[in-house]
Amino acid sequence: MSLQAVQAFFANIGREGDIVVHAQSTASVQEAAEAIGVHPARIAKTLCFQGKDTPILVVAAGDTKVDNAKFKQTFAVKAKMLDPDSVLQVTGHSIGGVCPFGLVTDVPVYVDASLKRFTTVHPACGSSNSSIELTVDELKLYGHAQGEVDVCKDWHPALAQ
Questions:
Q1: Are 25 and 95 in contact (CB under 8 A)?
Q2: Which of 25, 60, 104, 137 has CB atoms 3.0–4.6 Å from 92's, for a disulfide?
């Protein structure tokens, strides 16, 4: 159902044909990178956290880790990821296919600065074997991002493409 929701979302903007359903799993960053044929950093992973008053989504590069101090400074709450059942309830997507498209609730979305170094990135499309290639500006637009944040660490600027 989740993939279908994302397909319907992209059909409304004439981009449903850009979604790729892969023969193998794209559930993890490494699996997605192998299936797509890109460096893992170019996988745009969507992480779901409990915000101060509501859950929030942060879309970040695949080679990053959340920096707890930066996260707390930005969102005024400790970084606490939601459990898989809560993620499904908030987004309509299961772990491994979470993305900022076709969401079942109006959860705020933020795009991490770690993605800015790439021309295009590859977020999931609601299933553990789907993706779409988007520019970071398209990711922000189609994901209805509230803005850009800098809450990650351990990413490598030299990987820019």
A1: no
A2: 104
Nearest in space to 110 (alpha carbons), one of 44, 155, 56, 74 = 56
Tokens for 64, please give them: 């990053």
The model's pLDDT over 86-139, given as tens digits with 9 standing for 90+, comes to 999 999 999 999 999 999 999 999 999 999 999 999 999 999 999 999 999 999
Distances (CA, A) of 96 to 3, 33, 53, 131, 149: 12, 13, 25, 11, 22
pTM for the whole structure:
0.94
Contact 118, 161 (CB under 8 A): yes
pLDDT digits (tens, 9 = 90+) for 150-159: 999 987 776 6
